[in-house]
Amino acid sequence: MSRRNSVMRPFLPVLAFASTAVGLTACGGTGPDPAPTDHVATAAPLELVDCTTYNGYTAALAEATIDCTGTMGPHSFFVDGLGLLARNFSTCTLPSGDDPLLRLDRLLSLQLRVDLSLRTVCFAQAWSNWLLTAVTANLSVCPVWTKLSATGSPTAQNVAQNATTLPPLPDSNPRTPVAYGKEQFLYSVRFPSGLTLFQLCRTPQSCAEMCTAGFAGFFVGRSGNDVIGDPYWWLDPTNYGSSSPYSSPNYYHPMSYADDDVPGAIYADWARRGEACSWWNGVQHVLSSLLEDKLDPGNSRTWTSRCD
Q: Which of 70, 192, 193, 255 is the most exposed place for a label (fewest CB within 10 A)?
């Protein structure tokens, strides 16, 4: 039995997808512009489900969406006929030198990884449940976000410093406190138009929090009139070539420690393949490596890396 199959969360019954379905316009393509109430009726309560270990993925989705469209709200995504969360836009409105939708589609393809047993609940169903909240709050106008600055960037110096705080491996304590590497982004936010009379949130900052709440983990807080979001370093999509700051001696992505719940995070961005990571083997955190994970070898939009 391979290591990747030896430790898994309990599997929940979900829809099964053939690997060929991942060409998956379902995850990455666009559909009709649905009303915010679409798909809400079938959403079940999430009170008994803990999606905390999925927050890193959903936070990265929020960041990637804002980088692409400059905003995020009830019309940014929809749940398609297969029960998958899909983006509701086909192009990006902000300039980018690369394929700006590639990162989004790769993150959305995590819904097709069978070892993420709560993938349906913590992506599509969580979004549908949030839409109900958005409708109740009469949320119709969401802010435009502008990225101002970043702290905690993965420079060689910052990564080397973070490496000195990481626990030595192997480590049998499932809840060892860890200072995760995160890049905090500071954004200014403004309304693109006037608010409707009955919208509950009334400031750009409070609406920024409400408009991104469908993707847990992204909104960290406020700094004056600005807001803060912070994704994990292992979801950094930057291709550094041979000069990756993460190659610092003694550094590893502490993925198995993520959100204080083993096995923690399993998947990282495709660009992080080959880098060191921590993996929970059922008994202890051990040193491992991020391997290529091509769900559909012929479709690069489904490629990620996996700590195995």
A: 193
